[in-house]
Amino acid sequence: MLLLVLVAAPLAAQGLPGLQQFEVQDVRLVLLDADGNRRGTLEGSHARKQRDGKVSITAAVLTLAAAEGRLVARAPGFVYRPDSEAFECPQGLSGELPDGGAFSLESATGTIRLGPEPVLKAAGTGKADFRSGEAGRALIRAEVPDPELELRARVTGGRLEIAGVVISGRRGGEVFLRSAALPSPRGRPTAAGTLALGCFGDVNLRYEREAGRCEVSLLRRARIAVDGAERDFEVTANRIRLRGRSAGTGEPEGTAPGLEELELDADGAVNLRGDGFEGFGNELAYREPQMRRELTLGGNPSLDLDQTPHDGAGRVLVRMKSRRSIRLVAPLAPPGVEPESASLTLSDGVQLWRESAGRVEWRISGRVVELEFVALAQPPGLPGAQGPQRREYFRVEREGYAALLRVAEGASEQGQRAAVFGARAWGTIERGRLDAEIGGPDILATLQSDQRLADEMRYALGLRARPDHAQTRPGLLVVRAAASLRLALALGRDPGAPLDVSARGAVELEHSPLPRDDRDLVTFTGDFAALGMAGPRVTLARLDGRDCLATLGYDLLLSNGFHIRADAPDLQGTIAGPGRLVARDVDSIGYFRRVLARLPRRQITAPEHEPDAGWMNFAGDVNLSGDRNSRGLTARGVELRLVHGEFERPRAGRVALRDLGELEDSDVRGLYFARGDRLLILSTGHGTGPQAVVNLMRLEGNALVRAAQDGIEAAAEECIEAGGADDQRAAGNPLSLVLLGKPLLVMDDAGALFGPALSSDTFAYDGAWRVTAGQRLEVTFRPLAAGDPAAIAAISADLRHVSRSDESAPWLLHRAHRARAALQAMADLLPPARAAESDQVREALAAAVVAELALRQAVTRETGVAADAWSRFRAARNARRAAALLSGLIEVAGIGGVDGRFTARDGDSPPVDLAVGRLVVTFNGAGEVVDVSARDGVRLGRADYVITGSALSQAADGTLRLDSAAITLPDNTGITISGVREISLRHRARDDQNPAAARSLVTRVTGQGLKVNVNLGGRR
């Protein structure tokens, strides 16, 4: 209520009742509340009461004051009705607030309510301005046309202050709010600034001083942005609502009030953009609670975060889309400090990816995705211009059956490096590397892999020599699992970048080259599988579970799993038994045969005698070890087989398991068999010459080796050991066969040991051999100094057919010339030392050269007609003998009681039985005995002829001598010999000039008191 106290006293004294109109000059009205308390004054130059009862004051000044502070409102014309709160200011209204603020209205109508908390309400037309504090320090500024303004004052402790402000309008306007820290979804440190809000529709501003709350609502084409040149935050939407808490009261001096704990809500075509971010959606909620910033976009939102390094080398964006919401949380960092972390939560139809210079590095898709950015310390030694390093933690849940993770190389998904499907996934992305774990069921991962996995795994499992890969090869790795998958890979395309995969639960892992080649297809099947690769090398391969299957092209492994690891500088591993390792690839079979089948082989070229499958059965674990120059394998309960079955081309992959039955068919021919309680295989060295690879195979416990195509069988209770260098040279390790513990050696065709040079004219007992010993039996094949395999092969090839009668003279002459060149090359290899072996080789070479010369002379003498048969035969025989002698020496040694039976191939010669305590005998390549030592009792029997003695030795001229000898002749001869002390035997060579003269054996018997009794029909 406005109570007028007339300052003009004479008028009051006159008391003019009933006046309908009056005018007073220099009026001053005291404003009292309903209780009669003075609240302010209303002053003006004129006061006039109109006929309608309203009072009009010209140049009005309305003042609400207290001991401290006052609110002043000025108007050119102020109209009010007595006994009411309503007023009109048709010419405008302006005011000054206690805190230094101001307001102005072009035309206003409103009410004034006096009391402990005076309230001024005004509705204006035209332009209106409001400022809550001094210029430059105001918390609120508003420019609203046709507004409604409400000011609430309050007196506290004798101080008048504005308790609340409400400004609203329906024709748009602008509101400026001072913020203690500018909003930013990235959590970056920002200084104080001013937020500009505007719209073209409804505006509503409310400020409560006591609660320190400020709220602004905007409708229709609303916008909020940072006011000024540096605009790093802007939101546009159909509706915007901003709330905040005021901070700063002017104390200490120099501080300005500002809004904290901002709460921003927007809906309807929301666009969000600023320094380092840009987004879109239908709903937005931005919060700053407890020293952090939260942003939530809803309604098919999208958001881009700029992570470009400070040096600007290629733009880096984290982009995201969702059907429901995107929520970003970042802590408020101190000024000048990059925020340590930020987290994202996206739901429904989520697509989240990173682009670097227009190339997609990775993509995450799912129903719910959580992503957290953590700033990492700058690695020492790296320039700061590279910008901050980050680690991203992520978690994703599947929506439908779509890829959870993708690692791509371009803006499109063509050429993607990896795609992972599953129910959920979580992990990290840091410094160009992805580490993820995927939960099942129905896990599928496809990855590009440039490693030559097939060769590496064959080497690791003992099916190949060490691979030498200068270059990688494009390939595809596919992993299926039911329980979980662990994946670690580089985001780039560096062929040498590491790749680690592990999966659990019904795992199927498949690696194939591109384009696909079944020969290099690799599959793992088991309960758990792990694979690690770096460059072309395997760093880890593991397969666990019952009845695991691994296929390497056409080769396969059945076991209870394996574990292979890269312990520098080579691979180490274990295969869990029982199991079966099958070799069906041509190269694997060749290596399998070369390493395992160490027995001497026939010179057979027929395809049916070549193995086309092989396998190793093992009852216990298989251990694989090695270093730069050696590889080792140990296993228990082993059976080794090589077979020939004329099989169709085997299939690769898991279907190869169905083809194993054909290996057991009755028409499959077994070529090689080995058995033992324990197996040891060792390969050492590399290259050729003195560094040639040496392979050792040792079978322990009830060992048995049988080479059917070579007609050799070896057995021993303790062990069988076979070894030697692959490339046989005089300086290398010789091929050797050692049998321990009641050894047995059976050879169906002993002549095969000596090659095609052997014939009955030099060695009669070239048939079956059977040798046993009580303790040890050893057979060694030792190459000579000039025993170059290539040169020997050339001699054999050139001289094998020189004795054919259908050869023409020119063709024979051509062969002879080639033989001479080969013999000369052989002679050049002879060492200068005068060792016994080199002397023998020189003699053989001399004989071969003479034979070759005779052959050329015979052909030339006939002038185009082939040489006579005897010349050709003699030349061929001498050449074969030279080649045989050059091939090396064969040494047989036995201890513990050696028993042997030797038979001839022709069947006419009776077998020879030998029994001796200790025996060492050396044959040359032609089957001739070049050295022998037999002790501890010698017994030599041929049919009914028996010779015994204490020791057997050979003289330098080749004569065999038996000491303390005794002879037992057949009863049908009627001859007995006694007093024998020594028996010597020596071959008499064939006469080359007399083809009919057979080679003979000269026997000489010496003794003391030698007696020969001859029974001639009862006479002696």
Would you kindly provide a brief summary of this structure?
This protein is mainly beta and 1020 residues long. 10% of the residues lie in helices and 53% in strands. Strand 18 and strand 19 form a beta hairpin.
Unreliable spans are 1-16, 249-253, 379-387, 687-691, 802-806, 833-837, 862-867
Mean pLDDT: 78
How many runs of DSSP E, i.e. beta strands? 59
Overall body shape: rod-shaped
What is the helical fraction, as a range of percent? Answer: under 10%
Largest sheet: 59 strands, antiparallel
Structural Rg: 54 Å
Q: Separation of termini?
A: 178 Å
Given helix and strand content, the structural type is mainly beta
Strand content: over 45%
Tally of helical runs? 7
